[in-house]
Amino acid sequence: MKLVTAIIKPFKLDDVREALTQLNVHGMTVTEVRGFGRQKGHTELYRGAEYAVDFLPKMKLEVAIHSDQEEAVIEAIIAAAHTGKVGDGKIFVTELQQVVRIRTSEEGVNAL
What we know:
Blueprint: E1 2-8, H1 13-22, E2 29-35, E3 42-46, E4 49-53, E5 56-65, H2 70-81, E6 89-95
Antiparallel strand pairs: 1-5, 1-6, 2-5, 3-4
Helix pairs in contact: 1-2
């Protein structure tokens, strides 16, 4: 089992969700986050004053999947979130040692 964590641009969330739904990935957790990578933020004007925005709004998407789905899920996220501009995001994949469904006490792949 794998945990796929993707940091994407907020306006790409619906596209990524739809792409994952087509792969029969039904459960996901989405969190509004702020951060920066190579973009290093930007400056904005507000009422004539210029100020720096160091942390940009992003969406953090977490999906627990069967190991067999890893490549398809990564490809779907890339295809749906890609704009070709700096700040498209990152995907992290980590191994899940154990998963337990609280309601039924199912474990492993059955808990997904």
